[in-house]
Task: structure prediction
Amino acid sequence: MTQPINIALVGASGVVGTKIMQLLETKAFPINNFYPLGSASVGQAVTLNGAEYSIADTGSFDASLADLTIFSAGSSVAETYAKDFVEAGSYVIDLSSHFRYEDDVPLIIPEINGSLVEALKAPALIANPNCSTSQLLMALKPIHDELTIEFINIATYQAVSGTGKAAVEELNNQTYFSESNHEPSVYPKPIAFNAIPQCDVFMDNAFTKEEMKLVWETHKILDPNIAVQATCVRVPVFNGHSEAVFFKVSNPSSREAVIELLLNAPGIKVLDNPDLLEYPTPVEHANDTEEVYVGRVRVQELAGDTWVSLWVVADNVYGKGAALNAVQIAQTLLNTNKF
Result:
């Protein structure tokens, strides 16, 4: 029987933090003591497994009390505290982007490179990938293993929940109270009834940081030899990211063969029947769901090369994009006797 462990959760009152607690309950994660932490939310009550807890201050918390700490509070909080928690003897899973590209910090999707977690010999910092990266690579991994992906072109259609509570409220206000002419504050343009081709800030190469995250993280997690080009778009969807993915493979294949690879992959659910208009959508398939949904599978020969096209949808908050992947990393730590 697995011994219960002590868990701290930084950002317990946030959108993702709430979903992490929900998953810890759903998966019956063995918890001895639970420590919800925050800053502005100190004193607020949260509930886990029927017990009520008061959020404590992250800065004054004794990190040595936690066997495992999950940071879900943004880059600035992770930068300030995460490494101190590791030095105090706690494994740390960080959902922010702050440490993802450091060479000595593993960037983990358990189904793809979970062996890096298994190899850890002492408390360490582990980074959780970007939401759009996680669902993309879950779909691409089984195909890459068999067909070898050379080049990816991806367009993302990202829900406002990926930006946080204020963005959800902004979409809600602009949609349902449009006669009040609400000016945008979270996004640079109105988000209701619109599509904004900008996620995160622009970089010197004219790509946004969100687009470059897909490049950097695909290289670190899956294969540095894959060329990646991305366009990330914010759309008026409350929850669930969608992706149109087009990629060239080294080996000839067929639509049926690609679907078979996906059907046999963990964490993937294929919804692809054009005759019945079956394909995934965020409203239907990305609300408190764990699977990465794939549809619209197409394979064609273009100028002598084999190209595959996919449509990928996943819950970016509860699901593989954030909370689920973090909890799965925690489960991997537990299953490999790190505590």
User: Anything to note?
Assistant: Residues 132-159+195-314 form a domain with the Dihydrodipicolinate Reductase; domain 2 fold (CATH 3.30.360.10). The mean pLDDT is 96. The chain has two domains: 5-128+322-335, 132-159+195-314.
